[in-house]
Design a protein that fits this description.
The chain contains 12 helices and 12 strands. Bound molecules: nicotinamide-adenine-dinucleotide, 3-isopropylmalic acid and manganese (II) ion. Keywords: Manganese, Metal-binding, NAD, Oxidoreductase. It comes from Propioniciclava sinopodophylli.
């Protein structure tokens, strides 16, 4: 059969630096010729040079690949050269929406030996190992809304959260199916005490799907209380299902309590296989450390395990997972460069 094609978008800031290490580990795991890679030069530089963010022809080419690897896109918050959101909306979100990545999967696991801001007393209670199933194609990310009388004292600015019964049902179902392969517990995170319309829909669908999975226990937390639980009782979570924006916020805190944003992997999955799925670290382009060779590539490397798993190479994925486990356990507080981390993990797979 035919060699799978993987599109690679390094992007901005530390994106290309961490993606290089991801590819290094991928090669060490499956060999240099298992996949054929197509590199796309997209991001801030391309836009500044040509005015293009994601040309239609590239979008069309990407439709035909087997998976996409993305570093990160976006300028430093406050940058004057690049309008905020131009690359994020025009490239990253464009791909998530165009390829119907409705499952944004973000695993969080506190590896033994990893430094965490959590207290010892909390860590000693037991393993922390949960996944966030973040809805990826709806909510406040749809771009519905607008601003009137912009720049005047009468300005009104709206962003509308779009939630469809079909969109909520399919992601909630994915969360329950995932829980069946894990510790069999799903927590819905929302804010239905205030967001009665969207929250009501999520709640009703959650209850209906839960009834189909009697083996899976379920509960509900408001998103604000979730912040408390992530810090004070993270062991309570197995699978969290939530909307697009809550999921964005929850997963940065989840990363912070499980060893930092440098370790947090993610997969933007279209479970139907109708479109290619996309694998990227949870973090962004980190302009504050870009170009210094000090970014932690572990999140991107773990995202390569999610990619292999998605392509049906479970055993290869497990080799990367074990290599990452071993590396993070051994690293302690030593400061290594981006490529040293990649070399060390590649040597272990
Ligand atoms: P960020 O994740 O880029 O950085 C937040 C902090 O985490 C910074 O201090 C950074 O140095 C640190 N950090 C991030 N990744 C790291 C790594 N691998 N190793 C060590 N430290 C790391 O978030 P931000 O500063 O809010 O955003 C910067 C830009 O990235 C913005 O333009 C934003 O829109 C964009 N962004 C893109 C993506 C993406 O493409 N998927 C995701 C998040 C943010
Ligand atoms: C993420 C990022 C993106 C998001 C931004 C850059 C659009 O923060 O992948 O977590 O909000 O989804
Ligand atoms: Mn985010």
């Amino acid at each position: 059969d035919k060699t799978p094609t993987i599109a690679v978008i390094g992007g901005d800031g530390i994106g290309p630096e961490v993606v290089a290490e991801g590819l290094k580990v991928l090669d060490a795991t499956v060999g240099g010729s298992a996949f054929s890679y197509v590199h796309y030069d997209l991001g801030a530089e391309r836009w500044q040079r040509t005015g293009e963010v994601l040309p239609e022809s590239v979008l069309e080419e990407l439709t035909g690949v087997d998976a996409i690897i993305l570093g990160a896109v976006g300028a430093a918050p406050g940058s004057k050269a690049i309008p905020s959101g131009l690359l994020e909306r025009g490239l990253l979100l464009k791909l998530r929406f165009a390829f119907d990545h409705y499952v944004n999967l973000r695993p969080s696991k506190l590896y033994p030996g990893v430094v965490t801001p959590l207290s010892d007393a909390i860590v000693e209670r037991g393993p922390i190992d949960f996944v966030v199933v973040r809805e990826g194609t709806e909510g406040l990310y749809c771009g519905v809304g607008g601003s009137m009388q912009t720049g005047t004292p009468f300005e009104v600015a709206n962003e509308v959260s779009v939630n469809t019964a079909r969109g909520v049902e399919r992601v909630v179902r994915d969360a329950f199916e995932r829980a069946m392969r894990r510790r069999k517990k799903v927590t819905l995170v929302h804010k239905h005490n205030v967001l009665v319309n969207a929250g009501g829909l999520w709640n009703r669908i959650f209850q209906a799907v839960a009834a189909e999975f009697p083996e899976v226990s379920n509960d509900y937390l408001h998103v604000d209380a979730t912040m408390i639980m992530l810090v004070q009782d993270p062991q309570r979570f197995d699978v969290i299902v939530t909307d697009n924006l809550f999921g964005d916020i929850v997963t940065d805190l989840a990363a912070a309590v499980t060893g930092g944003i440098g370790l947090a992997a993610s997969a933007n999955i279209n479970p139907t296989g109708a479109f290619p799925s996309m694998f990227e670290p949870v973090h962004g382009s980190a302009p504050d450390i870009a170009g210094q060779g000090i970014a932690d590539p572990t999140a991107t490397i773990s995202s390569m395990a999610l990619l292999l798993d998605h392509l049906g190479r479970r055993e290869d994925a497990a080799r990367i997972e074990s290599a990452v486990d071993a590396d993070v356990a051994a690293r302690g507080s030593d400061r290594r460069t981006t490529s040293q981390v990649g070399d060390a993990i590649a040597a272990r797979v």
